[in-house]
Every structure is written in structure tokens, then in C-alpha cells.
Amino acid sequence: MPDKNTNDINEYSSGNNPRSSRINFSSKNRFNWKKFLLLLLLILILPLSSVAKNLTCNHLPVLMKNFLNNHYAIKDLTGDVKIHAINNMIQRLDPSKTLLYASDLERLKSYLQNLFVSIQTANCNSLKPVYDLLVTRAQENEAIVKKIIGPDYRLDEILELNIDVKKRPYAKTTTEKQMLLKKIVQFQIENDLLAGIDLAEAKKKQIHRYELQTMRIVERNPEKLITVAAEAFAQSLDPHTTYLSPKDLEELRIQMQLSLEGIGAVLRSDNGFTVVEELIPGGAAERSGLLKPADKIIAVAQAKEKPVNIIDMDLQDVVKMIRGKKGTRLTLTILRQAERTYRLDVTITRDKVDIKEQEAKITYESRKMDGKHYRFGIIDLPSFYGDEKGNKSCYEDVKNLLAEARHQHVDGIVLDLSRNGGGLLSEAVRIAGLFLGEGAIVATKDSHERITIYVNGTGTSEMKGKYKLIKFPAENSRSVYTGPLVVLTSRLSASASEIVAGALKDYYRAVIIGTDHTFGKGSVQALTPLPQDLGGMKVTTSLFFLPGGHSTQKTGVEADVRLPNFFILKDIGETALEYPLPSQTIKPFLGWYINPTPPWKNVEQSMLTTLAAKSKVRVTKDEKFAEIIKNNKEAAERKGIIRLADLRKEVEKEGGSKENKTPTELKQRIKEQYSPFINESINVLLDMVMLSSTQPVAQVLSDRIGH
Q1: Confidence band for 593, pLDDT divided at 50, 70 and 90
Q2: Which of 47, 270, 376, 640 has its CA 20 to 30 A from that of 3?
Q3: How far is the C-alpha of 287 from the C-alpha of 659, rounded, in Å?
Q4: CB under 8 Å to 297, separation ≥6 — which residues?
């Protein structure tokens, strides 16, 4: 089996942006991998030094230079990079746009110019006026809030608050800031009142919250702002390139040791809100069916304790509050955007990730058409899991499930990747081989134009011209499933999922069904620990490419048959992130090792057109899909707007998490949420069987290979 650094694209959370907090390993790196793995082993075994150093101004130019030297695409300190870095830093200093005035932005940009002016020198003197401005604005906010929550304070039932911070402008005047803070304070107080806290106590909590905010900003002295500058610069290159402070690296060490006692959710910070990025398969949150991706967590309450407001709280502090021992309970107050934005409480019992829940599973469904019965298998693959010792392998599990399906005489297979956020590249390549046999599955290209192609085939890894081939054992022909195949995807399908779906699409092997496209994360990152306990740097070093030559970066894998979104997912995906790298192409490598006369029937464009048209008619008539479409449309029209007076009504209507449901009932809830998408996938598969092409795939595939 290849070394872990050549096939592990598993993703871990430790940063502040979607997917930027993930680590991917690839062989395409400039530094010595044996030394890197030794350093990584030391990180995993030893605690970080108690005297970990902070970055100094002298470190900043060297760090910036290292990021540029190792980055896949950006090698120079261009004007765009400087602008992005400055904008990123301002966003970090005032994520909720409540501190600064619009007029402050130009002043800050002027101050911060010197920080990123060159990679030879850095002038950090400008951080002193930045710091002074932040302290002044924090003290101003504290005074405004204390005035708002005076003896004459009354709840204003008609106020509306836009929680979509990206669309919220900076205040231009003191009056505008006072109105904004009034809305935010009322929202926070309303949140406390709904949690059973009386008005007097809620007002005290708000005053204390803004006093704490002032104290934290005062404590963030100019020297500590250098770390913020390093983070801002790193993510000016792309969303997944990140500077990891010593604390961030420690958090990563904990997660890489699989200390996963908690709720099992990947969180990110988004403009002052803590947002659920994804649910870990087998985790408590996923098993409960209560949380959804894109939920905003606004308060956390430990068992038998009062809730703590976490808006504008540091993500690391939020994670510490949510993580806890197995068997303990916590209640999360969340905002969810559906046909309206509403508030509800979710109570979850912490637990370890249940590995069994992550395993691939198969279920069977039957359909009757023209007097004949058809039987289909649905393989649910939540992640591309495995370990180096071979004790666990999703490839082996899927292989066994396919063998079982043959014995069940299925007429077709649905491969469900709709909630699969990625995993091990080696497992993804071999699973693709279960449906394709021999063939090249994916390639990576680094900044030196070196291309590595991952192949299921005979022989050992080798160089073929300018290409490096990494080979995995080819499947026995009896193990390859050649029947009708549908792959169910969504915006949550990322990384390894996109590689499998994309390869099957490029070879005309399967129909891809789902939302418009998959996530679009087609980049590979390498992690390098920094000397002197200064933390670490994670840098994008290469891109993935599908057999047809296109990268999955940004565009993802487009669905052949489109379904409505599971729920509001428009803000999920590479295109929703700041400064994503563009997609690229290389020369196609479809013909490498592929059987020139493959034994499956090709999926032609004419068939795809027919399948899409038939599906559209069904979806339009389906009541469950009609409700989903209606909710998505209403949510888009009212995106981010909360009517404060409606929160109580929504809590009463939704009932929060006060329902005492059994694990069986919770599993049934999850099944019901996704049942329309599974059912339609089976319907498409039945149509596919009925429309089986008369033209062999060999002709179409040979044409494309020749091209």
C-alpha cells in the first residue's frame, strides 16, 4: 500500500473558514516527506511546548516568502494578494461589522499597507494605530450598549435584523451604529428570554458581554495582531492555505489522534457566527437528525446550566464548550434558514463517533414496470474510510456489498455519495475500479507541472514519459460490477467523492444525479510544522484532475439529472469561499489502461436528456419535492432577515428539541429527510434500465480516447 502521504486526503477542522481548516496529504511537495512524517509523529506524540512563541514582526517576511515558494499557483506578492490580505485582516478584526465605521476602512487599509509591502521587510509599527482604533471603537460600543439598556429599555417588537453579515453595510454614522447595536442587543436579549432568563438578568448579560469584548480587544495588543496578519496573508492565496498558530496546531493534533468525543460536527467561523460546516458520519449530531449543515449556533448550554451566547466568540473557545465527555448533554440554540429564518433549541448527548455508523451499507428496493419486477441495491457510503494496517477499508466493504448484490440479482445500483465529504484517496481510486476495472482514475499536478496519475492496473508504480504512475491492483473481472449505475451527489459531496463521481462520469459509466454540482474542492494541501514552536503552515501544493482532463476545483462534478437542494446549500461550495483558485485543464488520460471494449453499456447524451426530462416531470408532481422547492424559494427571498417578534412563535411552532425520541425514531427521521432523493434515484435507475442503449460503449469511448 502506498505511503499515507500519497493517498490520504482526509479533512480535519482547525481553522476559521470552510474547508480551509482541512488537511490533505499528497506526494507532490518540495520538502522531504520522511522528515515531515517524523515531525508530524512528534506533534502527535508530544504536547506542544508550554513556552510556545508568538510570531514577531521579523518572522512575518520569512513566513510570507515560504507560503509563496510552496504555493501551487501564486508565487509573487502581487497587488491582488496585498489587497486580499488587507481585506482578510479587516474581516478578522471586525467579523460582525459592528465595531468599525465605513470611514474607518480607508484608514485601516492605509495603516496595513506596510505590513504586506514586500517579502524582504515588514513594518509592524502601523499595528499600533490599528490597535488604538479597535480599542476606541470597542469602548464606544460598550458605552452605546449601556445607554441602550438603560432604565427605560423596552423590547421593540417590530425590529428586523439581517444576520447575513456579508450583505450588511458598515455603519456610516453614530446613529446608524446605535440602530444596528440596538437590533443586535434586542436579538441577544430575546434569545435569553426564550431560554427562560428574566429581562433583568438578560440585560446584565448583555452589558457583561460588551465589557468582555472590550477587554479581549485591549488584551489583543499590537504584537498579537501579527498572528492575525499571518492568518490573513495565508488565506489571501486561497481558502485552504492557512497559518496555524501553536494553539491551532494543538487542536489539529487532538483531532488527528481521533479524540472525537463530542457531538461530531465540523464547525467554522463565519462573520461572527459559528456555523455547522458538516456532520461527521457516525457522530452524535448526525445520528440525532437534529442538526443540519449551514445551521448557525448562537448559544451553548451545558446540562442544567444557563445558555452562553457565543456570537462573536472565538471559534476555539466555542469548540472547547461543545466538546465534552461521552454521555454528557448540551443544548445548542441555532438559527436555521428554511422558508424563513427561525430559532430552535437542539439537545444532543455527546458520544464517540460510532465507526459502525460510518461503514458502507446496502439496502434494497423493488419496482414494478410493465408487469415485471425489478430489484435495486442502494449503497450508502458516508466517507472513504480505511487504515494503513488494512483492518478497515471501505473498498473491501463496498466490494463485499457488490458481491452480495449480485447474489440478490439486482437490476441496478445506486451509489449514494450525497453526504460524503471525502476521505482516503487510495480507497476512492480502488472503489472506482470496482465499477470500471482497469483504468486511470485521477491525476495531480504541482506548481512545477509534474503530473502524477493514480491507476488501477497491473504492474508496479513507474514513470511513463513525464508522468509518474502510482498503481493499485487491478480488479478481477468477476469483481467488477458492470450493470446500470446511478451516483447520488449534492453540494456536500467533496474531495474523494468528486474524484469517484467525476471518473465514472468521464468514462460514460454512470448517471450522476443530485443538486447542480458537487462542492468543488479540487486542491491538495501539505502541512509543515514550523520551528521554534511557532505553529504550522498548510499550503495548497497541487490540484486534482479527472480522466477527461478537467479539474474538480471550483466547478465540482455537474449532475446529469438535477434535483432540488436538500435544503439551503447555496452558501456551501468552493465558489462560496473567498479567493478560490480557478479550475484548470490538462491533457486527458482516459485511454490509460482502460479496456477498449468495456463490458458495461455506455451512458449516452441522448439517454441523459431523456432521463432528465422524465425526472423533471416526476419531481414537479411530487408533494415532498414541491414542499422543498417552496421552502427554498421563500428562504432565498428572505435570506438572512429575522423578525425578532416572530422568534417566540417559531419556537412554539417548532418545539425545539423537547421531543423525547428513541434512537430508532431519530434514524427514521433522517431516513424521511432524504427519502425523496433516494426514491428519485431509484426511479432514474429504473428509467435507465428501460432505456438501455443499443449502441455499445466501445465506439463512444474509443472516439474520446482517440481525441
Answers
A1: low
A2: 47
A3: 15
A4: 267, 273, 274, 275, 276, 310, 318, 332, 333, 334
Q: Identify the three-state secondary structure at position 512.
A: strand
Question: How many C-beta atoms lie closer than 10 Å to residue 457's C-beta?
Answer: 18
Spatial contact of 205 and 197, defined as CB atoms under 8 Å apart: yes
Determine the Cα–Cα distance for residues 443 and 422; give it in Å rounded to an integer. Answer: 16
Contact 356, 397 (CB under 8 A): no
User: What are the sequence ranges of the domains in the chain?
Assistant: 75-236, 259-348, 355-624+677-706
Nearest CA-CA partner of 329 in 658, 648, 652: 658
Give the residue from 542, 580, 578, 537 showing the smallest Cα distance to 230.
537
Buried b (16+ CB within 10 A) or exposed e, 191-226: bbbbbebeeeebbebbeebbeebbeebeebebeebb
**To which H or E segment does residue 673 belong?**
helix 663-690
The whole-angstrom separation of Cα 368 and Cα 357 is 31
Q: Which CATH number fits domain 259-348: 3.40.228.10, 2.30.42.10, 3.40.640.10, 2.40.50.140?
A: 2.30.42.10
Angle, CA of 56, 57 and 61, to the nearest 5°: 115
CB 360 within 8 A of CB 401: yes
Q: How far apart are CA 699 and CA 587, in angstroms?
A: 21
Report the length, in residues, of the chain.
707
Q: Which of 543, 542, 564 is nearest to 552 (CA)?
A: 543
Whether this model's pTM surpasses 0.70: yes
3-state SS class at 525: strand
- 275 and 257 Cβ atoms separated by less than 8 Å: no
Rounded Cα distance, 265 and 268, in Å: 10
Question: Under 8 Å CB-to-CB from 171, ≥6 apart: which residues?
Answer: 97, 101, 102, 177, 180
Q: Which three cell numbers stand for residue 622?
A: 411530487
Residue 32: partners with Cβ closer than 8 Å, 6 or more residues away: none
Note whether 543 and 444 are within 8 A (CB).
yes
Helix (H) or strand (E) holding 41: helix 33-45
The three grid cell numbers given for residue 402, joined into one nine-digit string: 457488490
Q: Is the pLDDT of residue 329 over 80?
A: yes
* CATH 3.90.226.10 applies to domain 355-624+677-706: yes
Single-letter residue type at 432: A
Q: Determine the Cα–Cα distance for residues 590 and 199; give it in Å rounded to an integer.
A: 66
Distances (CA, A) of 648 to 194, 201, 204: 7, 19, 21
Q: What's CA 555's distance to the chain center, in Å?
A: 15
**Whole-number Å distance between alpha carbons of 252 and 243:** 12
User: What are the residues facing 333 on neighbouring strands?
Assistant: 299, 345
CA distance 240 to 17: 8
Q: Distance between CA atoms of 235 and 248, rounded to whole angstroms?
A: 15
Q: How far is CA 684 from CA 149, 337, 418, 621, in A?
A: 58, 30, 16, 15
Residue 676 has pLDDT above 70, yes or no: yes
Which range among 81-90, 218-227, 341-350, 425-434 shows the weakest confidence by mean pLDDT?
Answer: 341-350
Helices 663-690 and 623-637 pack at an angle, to 10 degrees, of: 110
Lowest-confidence pick of 54-63, 136-145, 226-235: 54-63
Rg (CA), the chain: 26
- What does each C-alpha distance from 346 to 36, 310, 335, 666, 674 come to in angstroms? 41, 15, 11, 13, 20
